[in-house]
Amino acid sequence: MSEYNPVDDYCSERKRKIRKAVRKVVTRPAMNALLGTTVWGEHNVEGLTGAYIVVGNHSSHLDAPMVFSLLPDHMTDNLATGAAADYFYRKKGIAKLTSVFFNTYPIERKGKTTTPNTSRATGMTSKLLRAGIPILIFPEGTRSRDGKMGVFKPGAAAIAKKIGVPIVPLAMSGGHEAMPVGRVLPTLNHPEVNLFIGEPMFGKLEETPEEFIARVRHQIEMMLDQKTANPDPTLD
C-alpha cells in the first residue's frame, strides 16, 4: 500500500465535483442573494491553468466566500487556501465543512498551540503549487479594521518567485461596508461588491520579494482607485 500523500486530496476529481456542486447550489446563490455582486476582468485569466497565487486585499469575513463563490469556475475548481489550524481545525466537524467550502489546508500561526493531526500540512503551500494547485493568499495576514489596505507581507511573492508561478492580483471593494468587523451577517440593503481580476504578474529576476509584493499591492490599489481590472498606470 502506498504512503498517503496529503496533496492527493486536492487533486481528487470526486472532491472537486463536490466543491463545484456546493458552489453552484449553496454558496454562489447565497452570495448573489445577499449582495449585489459584479466580477470584472475574467478576460485577464482566460486560458490560465495550473499553479498560480491569487493575492487579494482583505477587509471582511466575506472575502474568502466571495472568492470561492464568484470567481470563474476554472479558477475555483482547484483553488485552495490556508486556514488557521488553531481556529478552523480544532473540531472535526468545522474542519470538514471548511475543507468542503474553501478547499483548505491547516496553517499553524505563530504563538498558537499546535493542533493535533496537522503536522503533515507543513509546507503545504509549496507542495500544492508544485502539484499544479492554485492558492489564495491574503498577504495582509488579517482583516483590515477600517477598510483601508494594510501592509502586504512578502511571503506570497517569495514563494511565487521560488517556484516560478504568477500572482493574479485581485482587488475587492465593498466587502468592508457590507460586513464590517463585528457583524456576523452582511447588512440587509443588498450592498454592492466588486471583484476585479487583474492580469497575472511574474516576479522580475532582479526583484526582491518585498519589491514584487509592493508592485502587486500597487496594482490592486490602482484597480480599486480606478474601478477597473485593467487600470491605466499613467493615471496613477
Automatic annotation (TrEMBL):
GO MF term set: acyltransferase activity
Matches recorded under CDD domains: LPLAT_AGPAT-like
One Pfam family recorded for the sequence: Acyltransferase
Keywords, ordered alphabetically: Acyltransferase, Transferase
All copies of domain Phospholipid/glycerol acyltransferase, residue ranges: 52-175
Protein name: 1-acyl-sn-glycerol-3-phosphate acyltransferase
